[in-house]
Design brief:
Strand content: under 5%
Order of helices and strands: HHHHHHHHHHHHHHHH
Number of helices: 16
Structural class: mainly alpha
Helix content: over 70%
Distance between the termini: 18 Å
Amino acid sequence: MTEPKFSDLLQQHAFLRFWFTRLAGTAANQMLMVAVGWQMYDLTGNAWDLGLVGLYQFAPVLLFTLVAGYVADRFNRAKIVAVAMAWQWLVAVILALVSYDFSGTGSGHFIGLSRELLLGLSVVLGLARAFQMPAQQALIALLVPASLLPRAMAFSSSGMQAAVIAGPALGGVLFVAGASVVYLTCALLFTVGIALVLRLKYGHVRAPYERPTIKSLLAGVAFISQRQVLLGAVSLDLFAVLLGGATALLPMFAKDILHVGAWGLGLLRGAPAIGALMSSVVLTRWPLRNRVGTILMSAVAIFGVATVVFGMSENFVLSLVALAITGAADMVNVVIRQSLVQLETPNEMRGRVSAVNSVFIGASNQLGEFESGATAAWLGPVGSVVLGGVGTIIIAILWLRLFPTLTRRNELAP
């Protein structure tokens, strides 16, 4: 059999349309996060409040993602993604209105903007993401042949990381013109994403009807728990990024430690994506074929080491490099984990299995932001990040022992 090439992937038109959908949506979402985080810290100057933004986004994911997985297995996944992006569009419009300086004085005091509003809208964003992520993850495997899936995962991730680079950087630049400009740009990008995904055609096959019981909602949990490779991969990401994430504290590092402004915050937020983009491009060109388990564990350990370096750095360039390395290592983790989940899961279960995966991703990101904010309030930002990085290294070592089947996994395909 002839090995699939990258040119074969570019002939998958439905996949490419979806790729541009995720590009627009991810860029808009990242710009939202930069603006909300900067405004929250500007309003309160409190690390705890930065952590709460992450917690308020994660709570709906924890509560509703299993329901969202059931919905993704029953209904058109493209339309679910469109509705979720529409809710994020609404949040961007509301924030644009309340952030506009109607006085024209440039005083920085805006009508209706408050800590409570930012936290409330964070809940709405979390709810939208809870339904978007399972449908979005389960959709990719329906748009490309199984032989192209590892390349598709890497290429899809490269687009997302390009958006993560451009989003925060553009958001930081646009913030100079005002927060409302950032939010209006987000709304425009969400509009593009919605228009693209609504035109997406694929062979939607509704899963056999199951009454929405506790058992059917937890079917994805049971599926993963019975497969040590999947359980090890998704739990590794949960604990490693939960401990090692420093995203919520970047406003503090930008303002108080590295002494750069909103533009510097944008670069710091984009640095991990630069490393991730480079890594995903390499993985698209040269997909992983052998020793994927060992590579996964090594990538997590490197992520932890780079996190420690970032936490101890007082040099802006060194901080950017360290963050870029964390992004590159995390991308290896993402591609291996997502490929394993999709390749080992039948289509009628992909929504619910992807929902469980989304809970783990949400916990490692949003709950990790809360953990970072809480420990920073106790140990300071440097102590919080260094402790988290050391914890990530320890997790990688423990998982070598706890999940030997994953460690010995050679190829992505079962």
